[in-house]
Amino acid sequence: MNVALVDMAEAGERLGAGEQAYEYQTDDRTLRILGPACGFGPEHLQRLRSEGLYAESLEEARAHARTRNVALTGVWFVKQSQ
Predict the structure, then answer these.
(1) How many angstroms separate the CA atoms of 31 and 10, rounded?
(2) Per-residue pLDDT, 82
(3) For residues 60 and 74, what is the distance between their CA atoms, to the nearest angstrom?
(4) For 37-52, what is each residue's pLDDT tens digit?
(5) CA dihedral 16, 22, 27, 32 (to 10 degrees)
(6) C-alpha distances in Å from residue 21, one per residue of 18, 31, 62
(7) Residues near 7 by Cβ (< 8 Å), separated by ≥ 6?
């Protein structure tokens, strides 16, 4: 699987068009907030969500980031096959 990091402006457009995030990038490179396109099972995602490490939406990712005093800097998306 290939993923590509895009800035927040482009990410907003892509998310608005219905594309799903693989991961939300923060200014703390050690913090991973996974998105719906990550492909993990529902039980694992529920645990990650309760820990603030999974978000269904950009707004939820921002909320998780705020609780950790970090900012979102970009979003990883799965690259489309050409």
Answers:
(1) 21
(2) 55
(3) 14
(4) 999 999 999 999 999 9
(5) 140
(6) 10, 15, 13
(7) 73, 74
Whether 62 contacts 77, CB under 8 Å? no
Two structure tokens written together for 18: 């219905």
Q: How far is CA 48 from the centre of its chain?
A: 12
pLDDT value for 42: 93
Strand 72-78 vs strand 32-34: parallel, antiparallel, or unpaired? unpaired
Cα distance between residue 32 and residue 5, in whole Å: 13
Please report, for the chain, the start and end positions of each structural domain, with discontinuous segments joined by +.
Answer: 3-71
Read off the tokens for 1.
Answer: 């699987």
